[in-house]
Amino acid sequence: MPILEPLNTRETRKAERSLPPRLYDFRFPIKPVMLSLILACPPAIADDAKQSCLDNANTQREINQCSGLENESADRELNRVYQAILKQHAGDKLFIDSLKQAQRAWLKWRDAEMLAIYPASKEPGYYGSSFAGCWSDQLATMTHERTRQLKKWLDGVEEGDICAGSLPIKSSQPALPENLTAP
Fold first, then answer.
1. Which of 18, 26, 71, 165 has the most CB atoms lying inside 10 A of its own CB?
2. Is the pLDDT score of 41 beyond 70?
3. Which DSSP letter does residue 169 get?
4. What is the CATH number of domain 27-155?
5. What is the model's pTM?
6. How far out from the chain centre does Cα 103 lie?
7. What CA–CA distances, in Å, run from 144 to 82, 137, 149?
């Protein structure tokens, strides 16, 4: 469960307990270079790093670790975007409260969706040795999609979008070359 803000509610702790235990572990080291690439890279590069990680994986455990690292990378990007939105819109309490409520609801939906996809996830071995990787890949896919949805509050929408609601409007002024300044 990503840490978007301190949520020490009983409901959150209960939801965390209902999920399967950590699906991969790092007792068996993944190649340090691959780990550092995935952890330090922006999403597009991280995709290449994941593919490289998978290309170098020799066992199912290593494949599962690569998927787990991709999920963690997606989660970090989601948290980065979420925190940037909170900072950018800090003066709009109504929006911030609504966004936090929406994010909590998305987390509940994501967890319920995962259990719908893998209803027997608490039965060891039910989905085979690739389950941890599949679980992580599915989480990463949903997390990337949520990040894309949230970025609208950072990027804005085109002027004239009459359904923009709380979404900011993109700047309509063209960017000036570096050596020029606005009058």
1. 71
2. no
3. B
4. 1.20.1270.180
5. 0.67
6. 12
7. 12, 10, 9
